[in-house]
Amino acid sequence: MSATDDLLVDVATLAGELADPEPAAPTVLDVRWRLAGPPAREDYAAGHLPGAVFVDLDAELCGAPGPEGRHPLPDPAALQRVLRAAGVRTGHPVVVYDGGDGLPAARAWWTLRWAGHESVRVLDGGFAAWVSAGQPVTAEVPTPPPGDVTVVPGGLPVLDADAAAELAAGAGVLFDVRAAPRYRGETEPVDPVAGHVPGAVNLPTTEHIAPDGRLRAAATLRSRFAQAGVEPGVRVGAYCGSGVTAAHTVFALHLAGHPDAALYVGSWSQWVTDPDRPVATGAGT
Q1: Residues annotated as catalytic (active site), given as ranges
Q2: Any idea which architecture 158-271 has in CATH?
């Protein structure tokens, strides 16, 4: 099995797996999400993959916004209750999907992996790819049997502000994966301060997504990261506005063969809570 098989699943493969009788079929979580706008739960109610359970990224996969950022780590006990209610079982595979760009699905993947659940894949192309392929959707809300997963934090590395600053200062590579104007400090639509962590390298995560919403090939990602300074043995981390889109870059790094890539979960929304932390602007690091 390749690294791609461990991380991504295509529509045809997932459809075949879901056609198998239980207990072989994976648990499927719908994590569609919008940074702004009406709740994505309404999208789920209108139609979703058969058997999929909706999990709210904001309210259930993250902690409450505050000093640790807009999408901080969830409380382990609370996360365990959510995952068990969704039917997640110890050692049983999980597939997560979103609307199509892979950003919230990657954060869900990261959260489950951080929580110690290793068998998690992202549906490449998400709901849009599923519908485009003519696969069935339903409005029926399933009642999964309770899961028994135990949340054990620490399954993936996490950066705090100090560790992120250390990487950016030369101990490795720290990617700022936001759009270039936000990185340069020309605009900041969400957080109270514009700019970036000094020394961070701008590599927008949108560059890793093909026009059809699927992730670019592992070889392409590997080349892009190498050009940005990430070689075997080099420590690497990523941040964004609040730790969602950066999780997508961490996912892409895993796909490219960098399984130790770390997420600065608090990201820029946490960095700017301390006025003593330095802020850089402009195109240079």
Answers
A1: 240
A2: 3-Layer(aba) Sandwich (3.40)
